[in-house]
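A favour, since you know our structure tokens better than I do. Would you make up a two-line entry for one protein for me to read? Write everything out right here, beneath this request.
=====
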Amino acid sequence: MDGMGRSTMPPSEGSKEPSRDSGTPSGSDFLQLDIGQAPPGGRTAWLTERLRSAVADGRLPVGTRLPASRVLAAELRVTRGVVTEAYRRLAESGQIAGRGRLGTVVVVAPAAPRAPARDATAPGPALFDSADRDGAVDLLRALPCRIDLSPGVPDLAAFPRTSWLRAERAVLTDVSRTDLGYGDPRGAPALRRAVVGWLARNRGIRAHPDEVIVVAGVAQALALLGQLLRADGIRRVAVEDPGSLGTRQQLAYGGHTPVPIPVDERGLDVAALRASGAPAVLLTPAHQFPTGVVLDGERRRELLGWAADGGLLIEDDYDAEHRYDRPPVPALRSLLPEGVHYAGSVSKLLAPALRVGWLLAPSARRDALLTAKRHADLGNGVLTQLVLARLMDSGELERHLRHLRLRHRRRRDAMLRAVRTHLPGARVHGAAAGLHLMVTFDTHGAGLRDTDLAAAALARGVKAHPLSWHRITPGPPGLVLGYAAGPAHEIDEGIALIGAALRAGA
């Protein structure tokens, strides 16, 4: 693709650009762009915004081919790097993409206009202090905003559309009439085999395809396991504190009482787990949400000993594949196959909308889980399973993961720089892996309420989660900030707005 396929770095937006000759036009028929309107030193930002606005208002509808970078640069009489950097920023935000010989084309338009910098109608602290956390999370997710730093939102602009379409065509060419029936409630055999290979290569788990149950994401895996817990008379389930609000809500909906177990720099406190008397525990050992810590070796041995003594262990392999500055850690399931109920998905790797995940359970509970799955929905959609299996078997999913790691590392680095600049008193947690950072504000003491800070940030057009949403017991105020979904310049702007809210006395 001309202008996006090379790693051309933009020049300084000052003296290195060609000088403009007032006697020679420096404009383009394309969108009637006139570089003379750009502010000094801001040509790339100006061009990016002009193109983004043209996509938003419909002048560049989906499918429009943009000029080749060298052509547009020549017409505007700027260096090619100015144009390639503008194209790169639009690609990062998912509005344009390279299509090989078709060039650079518009692939998606914004679903809604950009929100104003301040939205007087945005919900205030009542949203974040609401006792109805289910409703609050749903409302926050649905609210329009200028910059979304919510955790748990993957890089949906990076979804491998071309690879998916290629695999889908191949599947539809080869699919048999019987493949279009209800199929095996455990999941399509092709996907179960592919999942076994994926887990062996990436998580150190040795399994047989018959051990895999394909589910509609980790959420359904937990719902099915919850049914088994109730059947066994288990109502108290230990959870990490701080830990996932969504997980706690799901357990409570299923009639279980979450029992908070402290998390420190070594992960879940296993001694506290034993002391709690809870017969089951749900945890994220590879990348704890939201702190980002990894369960260390000694705690792992203690936890596996607890499971060997009869404890029921549920492993949510959350964000295990998204790591940047640390080596991989094996899944607990790889160390104690008959003692761990293991759940994973492609929601953060591809897209939550696919609703595809997997559940591996000890042999004693496998038949009961399969029965629960059969009665829940008769199995997941087969065509999606077959496409995903092809991506796994062909190596396309690993290539996509490598691509994502590069994008996420750049955005993680951008957020770290922004936090250092705009939130100098914040302490950063969990930067080595995942799709979010946790920041705490120890120096502000009891005077800062993170729900007030999140409300003030939302009023400025920025979404973020207050850390207190994910706590059961009190702790230092903080925010949980996702960096996967947006480009670097939006991340910097979002953190700057949060910093302004903090200085204003949120």
